User: What shape does this take?
Amino acid sequence: MLFLEFSRCCEEIENLSGRLDMIDVIGRVLPGLSPEELPVFVRFIMGKIFPDWSAQKLGIGPSLLYEAVGYVAGIKKDAVIVKINKTGDVGVAVEELLSKKSQISLSHQDLEIVDVYNKLISIAARGGATSQKEKVRMVQLLLGDASPLEGRYLARIMLEELRIGVGEGSVREAIATAFSVDSALVEHAMQAINDLGEVARLARIGQDALRDVRITLFHPVRMMLAQQGSIPGMVQEHGEVAAEFKYDGSRFQFHKKGNAGKMYSRRLEDVSGALPDVIGLLLASTDHDVILDGEVIATKDGRPMPFQSVLRRFRRRHDIAEAQEAITLVPNVFDILYIDGVTLIDLPFTDRRKRLVEMVTRQYVAPQVVSADTQVIGRTYRDALAAGHEGIMLKVPGSPYTPGQRGKNWIKIKPEVDTLDLAVIGAEWGEGKRAHVFGSFLVACQDQGKLIPLSRVATGFSDEQLAEVHDLLKDTVISSAGKEVRFEPELVFEVGYAELQVSPTYEAGFALRFPRFIRLRDDKDTTEIETLDSIKDRYQRQSKSAQAYRK
Ligand code: AMP
Assistant: This one.
């Protein structure tokens, strides 16, 4: 498939509004692709380059991309930024700039999607000190071969932000229709292997190939997530439930084969380098090849320490030994997804738990209380808080492990705290001694896959935190006007507030009273932020409790 055909397909989809129409367009393309093209197309159409299990990054931020675009279009990087500000979209700006270029030189080479993919892989593979320059050079060559329309989508893919509204659900359905396979099997295979490109390749082979997928060691599986709920609600619905402490640390997934072990973070990044001590403990905890799911906490004199201490260790690249001495990390394992070649995610939780207890040293397995008595569970909750944990998790004993889903089978119970996890989409430069960093931030919630501005946050930051946040954001600026900048949304803040109010100031229709930065949630990505629906829900609950108080 030519990259030009792919670009035309994107253009067609971009002009559609109905989801079913999108599924139809994609479903018609898939059967005509070769086995090599199929996974590439599937990832590209979702704005991805790498499989979801891979933490590999292209390493081209907006700043490098603009530099390369400027070179190809024969203008300065600043002029590229002006153009992007004017069009409001990187893709459209690149398209317009390349169309001027092609009036001068019309000689581009036909690009195949597999060529583009291979070139992107070699760009990603460049590391080391001189790599930035080399990367820019490679992007220049690639863009130099692109027609204006191709440039539009190439630029967006390089930022892994295609913006044509195609989500994983639509592609799953398109795969099911295109290859006449059961959509539940497509979803099942995706849960196990976490790469829709590969799932499409299997779907083409047939239903059995999808049914037989196995989790692969060292390809991390998405983490199962939790919803909010209540103890009586869970007991009423399910009778007996399993209660565990909710540890306030960092989620991990541990993969072990023989003597080799790796740790992955909640965002599926390989954090093994930073955690040799935890890997050592877990390697020694079982003789089997396993995948374990758990939470690692930091402790001092037997009591849990704040979550930040753990995150600091996860991020650590240097002086690991020194950091180990300062903070003791303890893994708490609460699930097992794989043993010795067998995938366990479809088994009921009770069965997985039985194996976990049999296979892994008890010391690292999170204790559990199984009961249908709200009093007993209430006591566990109080014990958890007294021991310095965040609360408890209630789990449905008969439920499978559903990777990546925030279902009703895991419910978190913790004291009501008024904080929201929100994406950072813009900022304003600071003033006075803070003029070299961003001073106030525009944060957004999500609704149907779109980011909706909700509030500004300007307080709660220390000078170190502002410097750290500036460092993380400076290469993701996509546009600027005066003191205002907009970012490619990547970073998540936990924001505290006193009250939710209805307000027309921001698009979300709500405003936060006394918004305050609490902490950086760099274990979360922007797909995991608060939804507009849950904010509406909070507002309802808040107004109900206010009414109850007034009565
Ligand atoms: P939240 O981040 O508030 O959505 O809560 C869910 C998170 O709690 C999970 O992603 C885990 O990182 C963490 N957690 C702590 N203890 C447990 C546990 N026993 N079972 C499952 N998740 C846990």
